[in-house]
């Protein structure tokens, strides 16, 4: 589905810069450094497509990627921490919130959760915003290669319990590793079946 046909379209810094809402759109949200850009690279099979980095706050714009003429994949700036001056951070956070609550063609928001940390208060804020905006969201656990199989169950339960309180949550939780490839094919097929 994605290989060879995903291209970077543009980075957006204000709502009036969004591309026309003329196709299916899915976005990747999550705390800074959770692995959003890495996941997009893994999904599309193109390593350097979305810029991934060790520095939290690397993605500072809403980055749009096109998959043929069918989809937009959207890489969002992280929330929760950023290595930038406060006014700049507040500007992104406002943009992020406007985007998440005001994009008609946004079919699903994938909310990435670090498998080592589970859902935090800052994540809850975003989940609540998505509930209010009636945007269906799905949780994706990232970096599962960094935890022991036994600990996966624990985070999984924590996330499942948290999701049960959110009306906009899609119940299936996807476990992924962009490094090792776990869950990538699953996530591709989830996106491919959206209408
Ligand atoms: P911001 O744009 O700053 O919000 O970060 P991001 O969510 O886009 O995270 P990014 O993809 O840049 O990854 C952050 C760090 O985590 C990088 O050093 C990645 O190499 C690492 N990382 C991402 N996914 C995985 C994974 O599945 N496994 C492991 N071990 N490391 C990962
Ligand atoms: Mg990023």
UniProtKB/TrEMBL annotation:
Q: Specify the species.
A: Parasulfitobacter algicola
What Pfam families does its record include?
Answer: MMR_HSR1 (PF01926)
Question: Which named protein is this?
Answer: Probable GTP-binding protein EngB
Q: Which PANTHER family match?
A: ENGB-TYPE G DOMAIN-CONTAINING PROTEIN, MSS1/TRME-RELATED GTP-BINDING PROTEIN
The cofactors named for this UniProt entry are: Mg(2+)
The family database entries (InterPro entries) matched by this protein are listed as: G_ENGB_dom (IPR030393), GTP-bd (IPR006073), GTP-bd_ribosome_bio_YsxC (IPR019987), P-loop_NTPase (IPR027417)
**Entry keywords, A to Z:** Cell cycle, Cell division, GTP-binding, Magnesium, Metal-binding, Nucleotide-binding, Septation
Q: Which family does it belong to?
A: Belongs to the TRAFAC class TrmE-Era-EngA-EngB-Septin-like GTPase superfamily. EngB GTPase family.
């Amino acid at each position: 589905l994605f290989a060879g046909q995903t291209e970077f379209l543009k980075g957006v810094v204000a709502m009036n810069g969004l591309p026309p809402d003329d196709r299916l759109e899915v976005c990747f949200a999550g705390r800074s450094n959770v692995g959003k850009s890495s996941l997009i690279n893994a999904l599309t099979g193109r390593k350097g497509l979305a810029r991934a980095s060790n520095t939290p706050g690397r993605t500072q714009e809403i980055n749009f990627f096109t998959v043929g003429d069918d989809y937009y994949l959207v890489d969002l700036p992280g929330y929760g921490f950023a290595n930038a001056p406060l006014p700049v951070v507040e500007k992104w956070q406002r943009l992020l919130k406007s985007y998440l609550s005001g994009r008609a063609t946004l079919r699903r928001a994938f909310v990435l959760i670090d498998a080592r940390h589970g859902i935090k208060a800052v994540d809850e804020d975003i989940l609540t915003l998505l509930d209010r905006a009636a945007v269906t969201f799905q949780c994706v656990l990232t970096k599962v290669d960094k935890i022991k199989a036994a600990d996966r169950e624990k985070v999984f339960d924590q996330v499942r319990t948290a999701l049960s309180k959110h009306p906009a949550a899609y119940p299936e939780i996807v476990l992924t590793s962009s490094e090792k490839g776990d869950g990538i094919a699953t996530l591709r097929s989830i996106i491919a079946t959206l209408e």
